[in-house]
């Protein structure tokens, strides 16, 4: 019964959060802002007001494909947000600018995440081979190696949380201080940013639960 509840949680939690994000984003994609500026204009304005002049802003195909690429110093906004003038577009744009400002300021969590990314990528790619091999062969050594690799991927997700929450906080402050949104529009912007942040929280919760399950398997094998 406990395992059934566990699998229901890890299967439904991310799905429910994604549904909530899409509904929230769709709702506020239809709500314009008093400023009437586009997501691209909001991004450029926020960058300039934070003294960041070496970052480009460009459109990218897809929906919710927005991201900041620190390698070539570019904020990429999905076309709906790049050209859109909605609360959702402005919120997403300033969130991504938040990452660019983090990069420019040398924000510690972002630097740590970037440095740790290759380790986490390796751990995420190969952990399950070791874990599966350890379980099938009843080899605690292989299982332990897999758990360590998987723990590295989980740590990366934990580091990502403060990076994302900080970018959202910065984005909200940019919108308010620069007059991109009015007081009565702040609530919608906050909902969009919170919904996006919840996707990272859900992914982290699932990853931590999986790590704990693997650790319990390891402990059970040692008891046997």
Automatic annotation (TrEMBL):
UniProt keyword Transmembrane present: yes
InterPro entries with a match to the protein in the record: Zn_peptidase_2
Species of the source: Shouchella xiaoxiensis
Source taxonomy: Bacteria, Bacillati, Bacillota, Bacilli, Bacillales
Pfam families named in the record: Zn_peptidase_2 (PF04298)
One term of GO molecular function: peptidase activity
GO terms for biological process, alphabetical: proteolysis
Name of the protein this chain belongs to: Zn-dependent membrane protease YugP
UniProt KW keywords: Hydrolase, Membrane, Protease, Transmembrane, Transmembrane helix
The keyword Transmembrane helix is assigned to this record: yes
Annotated TM spans: 6-21, 115-137, 143-165, 192-216
């Amino acid at each position: 019964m406990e395992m059934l509840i566990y699998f229901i949680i890890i299967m439904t939690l991310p799905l429910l959060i994604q549904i909530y994000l899409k509904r929230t984003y769709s709702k506020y994609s239809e709500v314009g802002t008093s400023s009437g500026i586009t997501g691209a204009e909001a991004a450029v304005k926020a960058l300039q007001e934070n003294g960041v002049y070496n970052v480009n802003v460009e459109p990218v195909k897809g929906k919710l494909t927005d991201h900041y690429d620190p390698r070539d110093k570019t904020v990429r906004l999905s076309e709906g947000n790049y050209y859109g003038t909605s609360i959702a577009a402005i919120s997403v744009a300033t969130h991504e600018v938040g990452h660019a400002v983090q990069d420019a300021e040398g924000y510690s969590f972002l630097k740590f995440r970037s440095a740790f990314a290759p380790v986490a990528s390796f751990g995420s790619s190969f952990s399950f081979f070791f874990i599966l091999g350890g379980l099938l062969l009843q080899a605690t050594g292989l299982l332990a190696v897999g758990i360590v690799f998987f723990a590295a991927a989980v740590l990366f997700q934990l580091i990502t949380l403060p990076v994302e929450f900080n970018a959202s906080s910065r984005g909200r402050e940019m919108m308010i201080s620069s007059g991109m949104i009015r007081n009565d529009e702040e609530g919608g912007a906050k909902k969009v940013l919170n919904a996006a942040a919840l996707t990272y929280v859900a992914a982290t919760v699932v990853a931590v639960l999986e790590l704990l399950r693997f650790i319990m398997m390891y402990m059970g094998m040692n008891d046997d």
